[in-house]
Amino acid sequence: MTMAARPISSSSSAPAPSSSESELAPLLRKASPAKPQPGAPLAGISMATVVACNADDDDGGFCDVTLVDGHRTLRCQRAASCLLLPAPGDTVMVAGPHDDALYVIAVVVQADRRSATLAVDGDLRLQSKRGGIAIQSAGTLDLQSDTAVATRAPQWKLTAERGQCNVSELDYQGAEVRFSVLVSRFVGHACEVVLDRLHLLTRSSFRITEEIEQVRAGQIDIQASRTLRLHAKNTLVTSKELIKVDAEQSHMG
């Protein structure tokens, strides 16, 4: 007896998944990130553009920023770690737990890269424990202080092609001073010098006194190798005990 073979249909369905696979499928499926909706509370870190900035505020300075979505303008406080002062037009990073406590944590892109200001509310100290600190400027280096400028170091060195110093009052205290100059000029109204000893060596000395010159000394010794000349309209030489003139020739009159 001949038996006909049953044709196998090519459209037979695949075996149904087990119950365990159907339960894991939703967990393995990657959820697409939700898009921020306009007006939703800020979460995490967001990019923003500075609209206005007030660095002189008592609370450390605040900035009005517009988020990247362009729908909201929020007020943020500059974080302590953000030393670079934001300016209008800068692109900044904003972070905070909610809209009422947002902080500008960094300035990403400056609108004007020609100038930058590092600002803090209190005292600022730069310290290098093992190395040095170098400040280099391609332009003018300007140091300003409302109270005082103090420098302390075992050695102080200054090198410049030209210097100018304007000081209303100068008080110098030191053990020793040395000046090595080619030309020295002093112009002033009065000069007072109090010394224990004055030692002056010159090749030539020229001095002019228009009015009065007075010398008070316990003993005066003047010696000239060639000529000693005293000339005046009136010359008075007085002595209480002795006047001595000693020479090979003496001319009177």
Characteristics:
OB fold (Dihydrolipoamide Acetyltransferase, E2P); 1 helix; 253 residues; disordered N terminus; mainly beta
Largest sheet: 5 strands, mixed, barrel
Helix content: under 10%
Strand content: 15-25%
- The CATH architecture assignment of the domain at 45-109 turns out to be Beta Barrel
Class computed from helices, strands and strand pairing: mainly beta
Unreliable residue stretches:
1-14
Number of discrete helical segments: 1
| Strands ordered across the widest β-sheet | 1-2-3-5-4
The CATH homologous superfamily of the domain at 45-109 is named Nucleic acid-binding proteins
Q: Give the tally of β-strands.
A: 5
Distance between the termini: 184 Å
CATH fold-level topology of the domain at 45-109? OB fold (Dihydrolipoamide Acetyltransferase, E2P)
The CATH first-level class of the domain at 45-109 comes to Mainly Beta
Rough shape?
Answer: rod-shaped
What does this structure look like?
With 253 residues, the protein is mainly beta. It is 4% helix and 15% strand. The chain has a domain at 45-109: Nucleic acid-binding proteins (OB fold (Dihydrolipoamide Acetyltransferase, E2P), Beta Barrel). The protein has one helix at residues 19-28; strands spanning 45-54, 62-67, 73-78, 91-98, 101-109. It has a 5-stranded mixed beta barrel with strand order 1-2-3-5-4. Strand 1 (45-54) and strand 2 form a beta hairpin.
